[in-house]
Amino acid sequence: MFGGHGLALSLYTDRGSHYFHTPQAGGKIDRTKLTQVGRALAHLGVEHIAAYSPQARGRSERVFQTLQDRLTKELALAGIATIEEANSFLRDVYIPAHNKRFAVKPEQEGSAFVAIPGVDLGEILCIQEERQVGNDNCVSFNRLKLQIPESPLRPHFVKATVKVRRYQDGAYAIFHGPRCLGRYDHNGIALQTQKAA
């Protein structure tokens, strides 16, 4: 959505555990502990609004039921067998028909989205977790050992706190502050040695 349309001013979601940390089921959210979604939205400056009203939950549940029930039947009726066919069907047939039936005309002209040129969304919309570098100058993440390559910044990063990013394509990167220390494929094999900026 953000790549195609730009950033929304706010995003209204239910209080699911992937959106918010909620210490007690059905209770108030804890904004001091961010989920991956919360971290990414905060980084982008998008206000994240939690739905508390039964009406809001009902609307989202009805949409989920439509997508989980009706959409799968529509795909089967259309003889869709591959992800590429499904994506084409969604883009060219299902979403236009859905929007024609359910979309509400906005009160004001123009887009509510803001363009974000020069922002690498892949570096923000990824899984990002802190880790401590081990005595072997490696970082353990998802059962992989990511070896930090030699760096002109310092002789080693043992005991340093770093951030590991896992991207949509399964690749990884290790960051120390704003500097990328190394990039890895989905098996944890170093892709190239990064020069420190």
Describe what you observe in this structure.
The structure is a single chain. This protein is an alpha+beta fold and 197 residues long. Helices cover 31% and strands 22% of the residues. The chain contains five helices and nine strands; from the N terminus they run αβαβαααβββββββ. A five-stranded antiparallel sheet has the order 3-6-7-8-9, with no helix packed on it. The longest helix is centred in the N-terminal third of the chain and has 24 residues, at 54-77. The chain is globular. It starts with a helix and ends with a strand. The model has no long low-confidence stretch (mean pLDDT 88).
Features:
5-stranded antiparallel β-sheet; two-stranded parallel ribbon; 197 residues; 22% strand; alpha+beta
Strand percentage:
15-25%
In which order are the strands of the major sheet placed?
3-6-7-8-9
| DSSP strand count | 9
Q: Any idea what the shape is?
A: globular
> What would you call the structural class?
alpha+beta
Instruction: Tell me the span between the first and last alpha carbons.
Output: 31 Å
Q: Note poorly predicted spans.
A: none
